[in-house]
Design brief:
Radius of gyration: 22 Å
Shape: globular
Structural class: mainly alpha
Order of helices and strands: HHHHHHHHHHHHHHHHHHHHH
Number of helices: 21
Number of strands: 0
Distance between the termini: 64 Å
Helix content: over 70%
């Protein structure tokens, strides 16, 4: 009982600190840039910590330990794929993205191609970020259920409300400070407490080796097909996700975006290995746990010393909250900047794109964060299978948008028509393949969760992008010139554009 009380007290103290970060962030938030991208002023330390925090959520922490428990060292591949995505984005594209001085992925497409058809990407991105936020909100509730004994809905409501408050009040500055605290707690909890203590309890590598199958030490024990799936879904998805790009936009300089991000990616890979090693040791010390996702909490509650378990549980909650808050502000940014203007254009209406008004509309941004945060809490409570919805959004994100986005960054001959047709073809083929497979599915992994929709979507998008781009006139020279100026860093001397209309005017 004493141990339980101490664990609860530690987690409660952590949750209270998150609320305080909201008020600290409010004092630093003066305009839209502060609220959405922390004023584009993060240095190497803050940038590295927050980038690592936003990508390492419940799947990486609780799920990573569970995979290690099931499959041994090869359980690390999920998080390694995530880390690889961060590495590639940082080394190849982050400096260019930082120079653009934009807020969303759709704005990059509008700036690069000069056509409004690419605004469709905002709808896909909103669905993806909202589902990821709902999934993370439901995930950290599982820890609160174990710790406080609450019903699932109450755990989601309380935890979601805390994230909602500090995200709404202080925006990206609050989220940055909270993520940095979460990064520190995760590092201490996983690397300095959980890993050495579980391995000590298991008798080290010799103790583990003597009580598990040799397959536990096989690097591909989880299956080659599964490893490929992780890299296709997570590595490629991280290259173009709004939640990740929005963190790139917070970097102070292109150099910070590149090397701070590379450090975060390396950290993620080490984090994945640590999680798998913890799971391996737990399989020896606490065998016969039926649900792999329960391993993390069982180790914290039953294996670790007094008080240490509370820090480890706080680390799990921290991991999930950092992802939830990051995807929440990303969803709000996309909804306000991209989706609303695009949808209103269907009815012949336009949104005021006045730069001065948009740059100081902090209240409007707060309302969007609040509204979508409330919606994500409701989704987490009501929808039992948000993972299926997230999978659909992830598949369309990669299958439909990847080629148009990366093509715009690496191929000068790519055109707006090519990008628009590529996005349409990739999305339609991905969805159609998913529906056909779901109708004929014999098990869980033959339908929505199959890999084929992404493969076919990517193939259709690539062929369409190349063929249509070569068959249509090159991008307008004025649009290319504006893009080249941005890539050269000229936008650093200008006030950043907020809406797509402002981008096309410049």
């Amino acid at each position: 009982m004493n141990s339980q009380v101490i664990n609860v007290a530690i987690v409660v103290a952590y949750l209270a600190a998150m609320l305080l970060f909201g008020w600290w962030g409010k004092s630093r938030t003066k305009d839209t840039s502060d609220f959405l991208v922390a004023g584009r002023r993060l240095g190497p330390l803050l940038y590295t910590g927050t980038m690592a925090a936003v990508v390492l959520g419940g799947a990486s922490t609780v799920g990573g330990v569970g995979l290690g428990y099931q499959y041994g060292i090869s359980g690390m591949w999920l998080v390694v794929a995530i880390g690889t995505g961060v590495l590639l984005l940082s080394l190849l594209f982050a400096p260019t993205l930082q120079k653009l001085r934009i807020y969303t992925v759709a704005q990059m497409l509008t700036l690069r191609y000069g056509v409004h058809a690419t605004k469709f990407s905002g709808i896909v991105m909103l669905a993806y970020t909202l589902m990821l936020c709902a999934t993370s909100t439901g995930a950290y509730a599982t820890i609160m259920v174990v710790l406080f004994g609450w019903e699932r809905w109450l755990s989601i409501l309380v935890g979601g409300t805390i994230v909602l408050i500090y995200s709404t009040v202080g925006g990206m500055w609050s989220i940055t400070l909270a993520d940095m605290a979460q990064f520190i707690i995760k590092t201490i909890g996983v690397f300095f407490l959980m890993l050495p203590l579980t391995w000590s309890s298991a008798g080290g590598i010799e103790g583990i080796r003597g009580r598990v199958d040799a397959e536990f030490f096989s690097i591909d024990g989880i299956g080659v097909q599964t490893i490929i799936t992780y890299f296709v879904v997570y590595t490629l998805g991280l290259l173009i996700g709004q939640d990740i790009w929005q963190r790139v936009f917070t970097a102070r300089t292109p150099r910070v975006a590149r090397w701070g991000g590379a450090a975060a990616g390396t950290y993620c890979i080490l984090y994945g290995a640590a999680g798998a090693l913890i799971g391996m040791a737990a399989a020896v010390v606490i065998p016969n746990i039926e649900v792999p996702d329960d391993v993390y909490a069982d180790v914290a509650m039953n294996l670790l010393p007094l008080g240490v378990g509370g820090v480890v549980l706080a680390a799990a909650v921290a991991a999930m909250m950092s992802t939830a808050s990051g995807t929440l502000i990303a969803a709000a940014t996309v909804a306000k900047a991209d989706v609303v203007p695009f949808v209103m254009s269907w009815f012949g209406k336009t949104v005021d794109a006045d730069h001065e008004h948009a740059e100081h509309d902090v209240a409007g941004n707060r309302w969007w964060v609040f509204g979508l945060g409330a919606l994500s809490i409701l989704l987490a409570i009501l929808v039992q299978d948000v993972v299926a919805a997230l999978t659909i959004a992830y598949d369309i994100l990669v299958g439909g948008l990847l080629i148009a986005i990366l093509g715009g960054l690496v191929w000068k001959r790519g055109t707006g028509m090519g990008a628009a047709v590529s996005m349409a073809a990739g999305s339609v083929v991905t969805l159609t393949t998913m529906i056909v497979l779901e109708i004929n599915a014999e098990n869980r992994y033959d339908g929505v969760y199959a890999n084929e929709p992404i493969y076919y979507g990517l193939a259709a998008a690539l062929v369409s992008y190349i063929a249509v781009s070569l068959a249509t006139r090159p991008t307008d020279p004025a649009v290319r010139a504006a893009w080249d100026r941005r890539v050269a860093g000229a936008a650093a001397q200008e006030a950043p554009a907020v809406g797509a209309e402002a981008l096309t005017r410049r």
